[in-house]
Model the fold of this input.
Amino acid sequence: MLVGFHGYGEDAAAQLDRMRAIPGAERWLLVSIQGLHRFYDRRSNAVVASWMTRQDRELAIADNLAFVAAVIDEAAREWSSCERLVFTGFSQGVAMAFRAAVSSPRRVDGVIAAGGDVPPEIAPDALQRVTSAVLCRGAHDAYYTAEKFADDARRLRNVGTVVRAVEFDGGHEWSADVMQAASEFLQEQR
Done:
């Protein structure tokens, strides 16, 4: 099962489209989860979501994690052949992917992260539950800086996580390089 988390101001369909574009993803059960904190996009009037804001942050994180666990449980009941579990996120969804991975009652095989950082509040003993990760950053990404990218890779490696750090020529995006790295990672997990 590949479980995805969208970026700020997006919906689950946007992340599902990204996941579907990964070569080899058709061999995985794809589950894209939408953030609980929905709002109207001012430009398009579409309903989009975010994972949280500063207000009542800890409560929002707890709500999101409980929701994620329930969705995964339901998907696992319906699709009993899911032996592997990988989380993936883009932008703000990266933080949720890591939070879900470290709090999951199930064994997690890895995290694929693009354009977002590992939450600073995750303690090393919890972070070591992430056995492998792909971290991706566009070299021109103003949101996910080179310094933060290097710090995240260091933090993960310090707890024993096998890290593949991918920096590509691009910006804040889910690029072809991200899809290729994700494809290789998923192939290794099978």
Q: What stands out?
A: The mean pLDDT is 95.
